[in-house]
Queue: 3 jobs
Job 1
Amino acid sequence: MAGEGESPGLFAETEAVAAGWMLEFTCYALCRHFREGRTRDFERSRDTAQAIINGLSKIATHQMKTVYLCQFLTRISEGKTLGRRFESDQRISPLESALSIWKLLEEQSKPDKLHEDIHRLILIQAVAVHIERGYFKEATEVLERLFSESESNKALRMKLALIINGNNPDLPFLQSFSYNLLIDKIKSYIDVFLTENSTNFLIKAATKEVETKRLEATMSHDKPENTIETNNESNLETEQSNLEDQRSIANESSENAREHLKRSRKRLYSLAQHTLWKLENVPSNEITKHNKTSCLQSLSDLQNIENDGKSLSHSQTGRKKRRWTWEEDSRLKDGVKKFGVGNWNKILIHYDFNNRTSVMLKDRWRTMIKKDIA
């Protein structure tokens, strides 16, 4: 039975590490959903995060900021729901509770203007949400709990007191420190957090898995394995039967001919790329010799079409030879490293060289070798 020889201590440590990864990922998702205003997804991630936090036997120091951020956003999301309570003291409103969590977050970070702005806005809105509902008595109580007699808060305290005493919730002062402004500032803070935590383990692993599945789905087109080769063979033969017509079109001088040629190149390029992927990923005993011949022939014919197209373009426009860009050189070096010197068709299929040909790739590689820049 798997795991029979594992000690309880080892598994406990393993579980704690995995829980830490899940907490980081869930907090990241929570921030994304808050940032994008996805209420249901936010609530789902909020509940997941809370379950993980409750299940932790011990919260490591490096996990504290993550825990505080989850708790802070949970309270901010309920900031205007005055009946919601997060503290044992039933008088404490959601924004008052959020402010206490924000102070802990501030201790985890280097103070800056954004932190100060958010702190001030929470103070003001903790009072303002009561004023907006006409709860002036409760607003006064919040004001007394949150604002000390220190000089730094004296002016702000006086302004809020005047608004409460005048029973005036529409004062321009409150509009200048609105709840929407508070949310925007918090989103700016979240942006920094998301940037700093975009490479955590579970995000990287999950992203890689999704990208792999998407690639497989794109390449397979949801077709059974035993029919892919036959269908590709038929499609390639159909495309190849039209090549002579494409060459004739390439020699015409009209704009329509050039557009037709462009569409044909793109269609054959996509089909050859898909077949090449199958040749590289499907076991060799499942691919017939004719399949391989068809694919290689299509690549060769694609090359010929492109050469015809280049001749047409140059003869009609008189444009000079196009310079190789740094990006193209970099792709060529990567292609040679991956597929080897001489496999120019493979490199051409797997990288974007802006309508260059395999002959151009070979000539450029020779030039790069001579210049000793490859």
Note: The longest helix spans residues 8-36.
Job 2
Amino acid sequence: MAFAPMGPEASFFEVLDQHRASLLAALKRGGREPAGRGTHLASRFEDSVGLHMVPHCTTRKIKSDSLKSVKNFALILKVLSMIYKLVQSNTYATKRDLYYTDSQLFGNQTVVDSIINDISCMLKVPRRCLHILSTSKGLIAGNLGYIEEDGTKVNCSCATAVAVPSNIQGIRNLITDGKFLLIVEKDATFQRLLDDNFCNKMSPCIMVTGKGVPDLNTRLLVKKLWDTFHIPIFTLVDADPHGIEIMCIYKYGSMSMSFEAHNLTVPAIRWLGLLPSDIKRLNIPKDTLIPLTKRDQMKLDSILKRPYVTCQPFWRKEMEIMADSKMKAEIQALTFLSSDYLSRVYLPNKLKFGGWI
């Protein structure tokens, strides 16, 4: 499978190629970030992995003879029995499938989700080893081809999006000549970039969206693409605490899935935009900005206190700009400059001249 070159001249990717060389050099040093960007911390956070579960962490016991936990104990046994049947029969089910086997017993979907996470953590195995799959909501487009577990050949297009597979571990024969992978926070922005023919103009490249907070399969796909090709990965998110949180999930992981960090996080990810400093630099009018809510300010304060911010001084500076201005901006604020400014000017300039942190 080959991809016809349609994008800019090779010289356009010179800075990107240099960045990739620095990432590969970092991998040879043991997976650490390039010099000056990372610091090893002896805690739950490690710069080469992200947020991961420490060996001697706090645990809780659930007993069958305790009135307080007997119901949880019974529900865990119920789910374990269903997992056993799936493994024995070599079949797979989604979390939703498990919930609907007895929706009255479980009460709601979050109960099942929590139990599956607990079992996965307790047995120290990824969820897919339990034969439980998540329904994918993410999309992918660009210069990428692969074969799904059932033999279906998928050739992603630069014009239309393909759903992220539900069994990432089952895909094989991945092929790309992409120079970079762009993670787009929101589906609306992703679709707009497709409409603007961004993938073809910047070809060869790959675009992915998790449609907001990414599901497990989207994160697994990003990780698999990094492990397979080691191409630069950038995020395009709103200049607000929620966008930064989403970017952190891709890069460093989340507390709830810290036991599976090695399979999910890509610390090499960089923040491409929208940067809070871009708002002033591009003279974006104040009437297109949105005041931070109390909840936003609490979220921002929380992120600033996290251990990984210590090894990201440029991120800290951007978040402090946001905190001082008490304003946030959506990517759509760039349309004030022109309707296609994002795809025609902003992203190409960022990629060509290394405007990431």
Note: Residues 187 and 211 are 5 Å apart (CA to CA).
Job 3
Amino acid sequence: MGSTVSCCASPESSPKLPSRQPAERLEELQTSTEESDDNTAVPYLQHISDREVPDELASESNPSDHARAATIFLSKSQTDIRDKRRSNHVNHIRHVSPGPLSKKYSSCSTIFIDDNTVSQPNLKSTIKCVTLAIYYHIKNRDSGRSLDIFDEKLHPLSKEPLPEDYAAVDPEHKLIYRFVQTLFSAAQLTAECAIVTLVYLERLLTYAELDICPANWKRIVLGAILLASKVWDDQAVWNVDYCQILKDITVEDMNEMERQFLELLQFNVNVPASVYAKYYFDLRQLADDNELNFPLEPLGNQRAQKLEAISRLCEDKYKYLSRAAMRRSISADNLIGIRRSNAVLS
């Protein structure tokens, strides 16, 4: 199970040069773990640091591993963004009224800020951006390469029969958002987990050379959420808990999907801070390109006092660290201010 390759390519998808199939990648991974050294019989497991690519090759490597590589979802969205900007330009030439401004701007009397930061993202806005990235992955996919373990027809998530054209009709952004929002709300997951979910999803597509398409997007997203919740959150959600959310799926199916998901990721679940920050800011760029503005609120007295308290706390922490560093090491520059006592001659 999971070794047969299926195809759900749409007529509009563009052809791509032949490459190794996902099943071959999975077989190579399984055989590589069984190889042993000449001197020992212990199976060889490659360390995560051994798979790192030098910085000069980061631009051509997997964006989920290296901060300098461009994210896949942002590049896939550029085609639609250019068409939308061209359409807006034509409407502007025709003197079509753009309508009321939907974005708020700060002024001398009112300052608008949002509660979305890289350390504490807004949950609803982050899920909207992540599901929009998944939408562009499906819409602008290269082909329809998939595995049986992710095929919803072979492994249904519900007992309701699928339509005959389930593998050809692209889901709308609202449908993807509703599916992800239901899982995050029921499992009480955080916004940071949504960003890590997108990292694992793009890592799977790159490592296993798969494409997310209408036939497999639900199970791929579910597998990425399942793994991200266990790696990121302190109190992980068990597989049986997801079976309470999705009533018709079995624990055995969840376990098998998780196992193959990890094998296709080569057990690389590490997400560097630089990669996390890159995905966060690219998601904000995606939101700006699609006019998906983050909620802004006017800066009031209570919010200003809270920001001032946080600023003072960070300033005090910085001063403490600076003093601790000065106590640990004294250079020649610090000897200028040292006063010398006069010698007493008896």
Note: Confidence is low (pLDDT under 50) at residues 9-19, 36-42, 52-59, 92-96.
